[in-house]
Design a protein that fits this description.
It contains 14 helices and 7 strands. By secondary structure, it is an alpha/beta fold.
Length: 325
């Protein structure tokens, strides 16, 4: 009896399981349970849903999945600031779309522009410099710019539950990759600090690059042309090019992530697809099929038949953002 009592007292003081600690901002419910069940099965050696460590790859969209994307994509806010700063050297922009709209302060028109217009803005405002110089511009902007609604730095508007999810998956042997329609070089300077994801595990849209020797020093220069758009059908292509194998987990939040979710969850083995549904207008934003930014329509319709888990932000998350210190 004494031995049994000692065992029971020892169990009582053991730390809580990792799941209770790692997913502290997730409310208990079917969505959280389904993710935990999948990870538990995937890491149970000799079980029917076991996934070998080298195949544990999880991909995450960024805009709207790992951080807020309203009222416009944060890179759009960045490029607007870049265009305004560069305008003095480009007087022709005053009459040249799409630059004309930016200079007139018509920020709401940006999501309605064509993809070609958007990429033209990105290519011009993000080019003509070395990669190191551009990274420094991004870091300076992140340190000074503030979100128009929350008056917080943009990189503080990451979703605390998703940061916990990334940690939880890595604790269980998963690689975590970003696969985003955003510019890869816009994300790489800050994602490691925000998410714990190293820059080499970021897949995104790219402009042209060119090797040059400047003053005897080899440099990679950024060119004003589009090289690759990592959105919709481009996401599986980007995964194949950069990761080299099909992931087993995919998180997204919009129809732009549909093909990635479909690609990941169409494999024969164990897999998981998750959609973040923005339903919390009080703490963040509520939008889906009517939104120009982060449109979520077809993926939400098809989620039940494809067994994709839908996260209801208002119900499934006890908090949205990390505290500012």
């Amino acid at each position: 009896m004494r031995v049994f009592s000692l065992i029971c007292s020892t169990i009582a003081v053991l730390p809580l399981p990792a799941i209770a600690q790692d997913l502290a901002s997730w409310n208990d419910g079917p969505a959280k349970a389904a993710i935990v069940d999948f990870v538990t099965a995937a890491t149970s050696e000799n079980g029917p849903q076991w996934i070998a460590p080298e195949d544990r790859i999880a991909t995450f969209d960024n805009d709207g999945t790992l951080w807020t994307e309203q009222p416009m994509y944060f890179q759009a806010a960045f490029l607007f600031d870049r265009i305004l700063k560069m305008a003095a050297h480009h007087p022709e922009w005053k009459e040249q779309p799409p630059f004309k709209g930016v200079l007139e302060g018509d920020f709401s028109a940006l999501p309605a522009n064509t993809e070609r217009d958007l990429m033209e803005l990105v290519a011009v405002s993000h080019a003509g410099m070395t990669e190191e110089a551009f990274a420094e511009i991004v870091r300076d902007w992140m340190a000074t710019a503030r979100h128009p609604r929350f008056n917080r730095p943009y990189d503080s508007l990451v979703f605390q539950p998703m940061v916990e999810m990334l940690d939880y998956l890595r604790d269980n042997g998963f690689q975590t990759w970003i696969v985003s329609g955003g510019g890869v070089d816009f994300m790489r300077p800050w994602v490691e600090k925000a998410y714990g994801i190293p820059p080499q595990q970021v897949v995104g849209s790219q402009i042209g690059l060119e090797y040059q020797v400047i003053d005897g020093k080899p440099e990679i220069m950024r060119k004003p042309e589009v090289f690759f758009i990592d959105d919709k059908e481009g996401k599986p292509v980007g995964i194949s090019r950069h990761i080299g194998k099909r992931p087993v987990i995919a998180f997204g939040n919009s129809d732009g992530d549909y093909q990635m979710l479909d690609y990941v969850t169409s494999s024969a083995g164990a897999h998981l697809g998750v959609i973040i549904h923005h339903t919390d207008a009080v703490r963040e934003y509520a939008y889906d099929k009517e939104s120009k930014v982060g449109l979520l329509q077809q993926a939400l319709i098809d989620a039940p038949t494809k067994n994709w888990i839908v996260i209801d932000m208002a119900k499934d998350w006890s908090r949205i953002y990390p505290d500012l210190h």
